[in-house]
Amino acid sequence: MDGILIPAAGLCAALGVALLLVTGRTPLRVAGVVLAAAGGLPLALSRTSLVDDLGDRPVVLGVGLVAGVVAIAVLTLMFGRWPWLVPVVALVIGLRIPLQEHPSPAEHLVPLYAVLAAGLIALLARGLRGDEAPNRLGYVGWALAAYVLIASASLLWTADVDATAYALAAFTLPLGLLAALTGTLPPAPPLTRALPWVLITGAVVLALVALWQVDQREIFWNEKLMRTNAYGGFFRANSLLFDPSLLDASRRSRSSRSSASSRSPGRAGCPCSPPRPPCRSSPGSPCPTRSRRSSPCRPACS
Description:
The chain is an all-alpha fold. The protein folds into two domains: 5-186, no CATH class; 194-249, no CATH class. It has helices spanning 5-22, 26-46, 50-54, 58-81, 85-94, 105-128, 139-153, 161-182, 189-216, 223-231, 249-263, and strands spanning 236-237, 245-246. A two-stranded antiparallel sheet has the order 1-2. Helix 2 (26-46) runs antiparallel to helix 6 (105-128) and helix 5 packs antiparallel against helix 6. The N and C termini lie far apart (58 Å). Mean pLDDT is 75; it is low at 246-277, 279-283 and 288-302.
């Protein structure tokens, strides 16, 4: 997919997601699902090489497709009986907990798509049986629909079509579908009371692990992050997840500034000298700088 096909697929999928976010009628939901699948499926397949990698292994591809259909069928039965499982399972997958040493994007996107597909099928089946779930998003649904449409329309003028298409397929469209499915759930007071404590407990655990990583300079799973921390200007921790978070940047920069000041005491508090590379001259010799004559501040050699 290239040229006008990627924006067309993105707009088609976004229109379907927007329809699901604002409507509560089953015929319109069916149209929304059809549009989302017609645009989202080719858009997602164009962002991953999973099908190309399995193209020369038809047996593995066939077994995977059959397993996927069976998994979606089982999930549809589960979600039809317990609809509140849809956001719970989707959010757990969205944490991107590594399942192997070198996780790929498809490792998390394919299960997420399967959960959303099963949730949508269960929702449509419930509506076709006459038990139509109302849309409780209200004005929030309209605001989210506008955001999804604007984000997908950016494919028409973005300078990086690949990055925008990936963001649309990996974040904007799935989260829009998840919001639409969550908006059909009835209020559950026990779950509502327990959810803040679950979020706080999870955040505390992740934060404690991240603080331990900062103290020990230890990173889990993400080798690219290890290399970035080794040569970067600050330390990033990923806790129990794969994606990193900014942490300890201020402490690293403060330590860098203090060490730079200790190496160059003559520059401390000097407002007129621009930053210079470390002096490589031998001790006791003057620093070879271009601005020695023009600047009254002369750094001392360490």
